[in-house]
Design a protein that fits this description.
It contains four helices and four strands; from the N terminus they run αβαββααβ. The protein has 196 residues and is α+β, with helices and mostly antiparallel strands. The longest helix is centred in the N-terminal third of the chain and has 102 residues, at 6-107.
Length: 196
């Protein structure tokens, strides 16, 4: 029988072991590649689903931003319109106040006040004014020249003033020209314009 030399045997065993190791390494490498490929696919699938969700969220956020921007533009326009309306209302109110004041002044242009006339119970203010003007400044007013005569609220502790409305400014001027006469008499009576 043939005998194998020890050297040859060693070489043969070494060659077989090398082949087994090489084959084993290839199998391990293939398994690692397969496992790595599988895990990579799983990771890609996981992250793709996350990315899809993020893209959906971003799309919704962009829609919300667009909607909010439209609302903001609309609200800004509405605010500008409201500010303009407010300015117009303020102008109208000021103009109404000015005209109201003018009308009040105009309506009072036939009025004058008599201050310092003592009050009596159940007095006839109309008659009191006629008698007072006749006796103090010698101006006689008949009933059709006086439109109204009555007491108005005054300072507490003093007689309430009498406001007199006459038919026209000529009658008022006739009375007011004589106010210096009342002042000179020192009777405590005073004639004043009814102005605000």
């Amino acid at each position: 029988k043939k005998t194998i030399k020890e050297e040859n045997l060693e070489s043969l065993v070494s060659s077989i072991v090398s082949k087994i190791i090489e084959q084993n390494n290839k199998e391990i490498e293939n398994k690692i590649k397969e496992e790595t490929k599988k895990r990579c696919m799983d990771l890609e699938k996981y992250y793709n689903s996350k990315i899809d969700k993020l893209e959906n969220n971003i799309e919704k956020l962009e829609q919300n931003v667009e909607t909010l921007t439209e609302k903001l533009v609309s609200n800004n326009k509405e605010l500008r319109e409201m500010k303009q309306a407010q300015l117009e209302i303020e102008y109208t109110a000021k103009e109404a106040m000015r005209l109201g004041n003018h009308n009040e002044q105009y309506s009072r242009k036939h009025n004058f006040k008599i201050m310092g006339v003592n009050e009596k119970d159940k007095e006839n203010t109309w008659k009191l004014v006629q008698d007072l003007l006749k006796s103090t400044i010698n101006v006689g007013l008949d009933d059709r020249e006086i439109v109204a005569a009555h007491r108005i609220p005054g300072i507490k502790g003093k007689p309430r003033p009498i406001i007199v409305k006459v038919a026209n400014t000529n009658i008022k001027a006739r009375v007011m020209r004589k106010r210096s006469v009342i002042k000179q008499k020192g009777s405590g009576l005073k004639l004043v314009d009814d102005v605000t």
